[in-house]
Amino acid sequence: MNLMQKYLDDLRFIIGALFxxxxxxxxxxGITEPVVPGKLNLNLYTGLFMGLFSGGMLFFSIRDQLxxxxxxxxxxxxxxx
Amino acid sequence: xxxSMIDYGIIAVYFVFVLGIGFLLKRRVKSSGDxxxxxxxxxxxxxxxxxxxxxxxxxxxxGMAASGAKYGIMTAHFYWVGAIPAxxxxxxxxxxxxxxxxxxxxxxxxxxxxDEKTRSFNALSFAAMTxxxxxxxxxxxxxxxxxLLGWSFEVSVWLSGxxxxxxxxxxxxxxxxxxxxxxxxLIVLGIAPLVFxxxxxxxxxxxxxxxxPAVMTHxxxxxxxxxxxxxxxxxxxxxxxxGFVLSFGYWCTDFLVVQRAMxxxxxxxxxxxxxxxxxxxxxxxxxxxxxxxxxxVLTKTDGSFALPLxxxxxxxxxxxxxxxxxxxxxxxxxxxxLTALMASFMSGMAGNxxxxxxxxxxxxxxxxFKKNAPDKxxxxxxxxxxxxxxxxxxxxAYLARSFNNIMDLLQLVFGFVNAPLFATFLLGMxxxxxxxxxxxxxxxxxxxxxxxxxxxxxxxGKGGWMLSTPVHEFSSAMAQAFAIxxxxxxxxxxxxxxxxLATKAKPADELRGLVYSLTEKPKETGxxxxxxPAPLAGAVLAAVIALNFVLR
Lengths: 81, 552
Prior knowledge:
The complex is a heterodimer. Chain A is mainly alpha-helical. Chain A has one domain (about 5-80). Chain A is about 85% helix and about 0% strand. Chain A has three helices and no strands. Chain A has helices spanning about 5-10, 10-30, 40-80. In chain A, helix 2 runs antiparallel to helix 3. Chain A is rod-shaped. By secondary structure, chain B is mostly helical. Chain B folds into two domains: about 5-25 and about 35-300 and about 315-345, Sodium/glucose cotransporter (Up-down Bundle), CATH 1.20.1730.10; about 415-520, no CATH class. A three-stranded mixed sheet of chain B has the order 2-1-3. In chain B, strand 1 (about 455-460) and strand 2 (about 460-465) form a beta hairpin. The interface of A and B includes residues 17 and 22 of A.
């Protein structure tokens, strides 16, 4: 199974990808919104928070997949030896 | 409410992901076990979030905001009294039997513990109830989309039904569970900014306390008498009716939620699923109930905010959340908020359909129609049951549109069947002398007693159909519902004991792994406390007691 397929099998990667798309849309909307004094820029704040959340999900998913890949390579080498 | 192209784009991206999950999981489905039970391979964090998400349907998200506006923070009793203790009990005491018995469903446990007739009674009523609930979810979603966006009823019903069908048919229960987790995060992240913005405007919790009467901001202080609080229930009705009978009856015996724990990858994970789920569950009131309180404050202090009125002139609390979304959310976030609402409806529907297809395939079809067919045949039956379940849900949605009273009646009848169920499980798991005849007749008598209690009492004009002058009038329909549940549970408990004493019990050998006293307790030495169900349950219980104390 290739690495991409493994990522797609990991729910954290799927959740991270979806919320990263949402976060980017909200941040772009938030940045381009005119500033209104006393009013919260909800798109920007929510986008930033979602960005952090999705970044965390993607980070842990990618880290674990790379670890698993490395350990399976080590196994292959030891079997070959 | 007016959506822009960006909002529609967000909804479209979400649907692509939902369908993509089903497509990606398609190759994992090779047997009926994979399709109907996820091959018992799901990690703990996913089963836990799916456990609460299966219940985080339309009623929870829209209904709890409405209850928050109607009853105040007392609505949190539905979580802190009416859910968490039962979830802990399920994890610590009941999961070892469900998981350890290798039953594939809750009705199948009843077959192993009691007999075929008790299983069939439970399986048939449960199958009918799930399809009905799924149809009601679909109906509510269509009505919401019609009133908010002007979408036609037909388009909403068939489109939502089609999407849920597509992702369950391809990826089975795993797909439904993965989507429930996705929907959980969407609901939390999509509605939390609303609470944040609302609290910011009204001056936080202290601002709410200043603007609303004390009865709306305390959970226990006005429970001494039913007349002192807006729910119209007293402390006994709350603790015994909601906190014990209804709550334990739902969380500990309803296959829809128990199924999520049963697919965990081992016994410890299965036990910890409802306990870990209890942590986010105790915090959900801050997301779903607070908008109701904030809306009440805004109607007093913000001239640009108003809840719509019903034809009789009262406030339409069911519109609390949609009105707040359109009040606070700009383009972009509005698309996310609306997607979260749609996700909550679809999550509730998918949960019901996946529970229905498992019960139909294993407990009805395999038991009564074709016993020893190859596994491929049951996989096909499971898929057909999914299609059949969705079509029945669509039909139910149309029925609800035409005959609203029939839906109320059906809901009432199913309530009668559910109320006594926990007594059957409690006796079955903890008293080895309980017999199949006792369980069956106990269940039946509990159901009949529930109907009689409703027929001879009245509340808010409901019930009292058996007598020209009802014997008692309750202060609220909720108090009547709690009282019916207490009567049903008690009669089931007593009748089951009496008939069990008069009939022959199963030999001890047949009850190993099914009854507490005859089941070996797992040893958990050398495992960290948070990985063991009992200490983890203790910590969660302490946290929920603290929450009740803080907002007493």
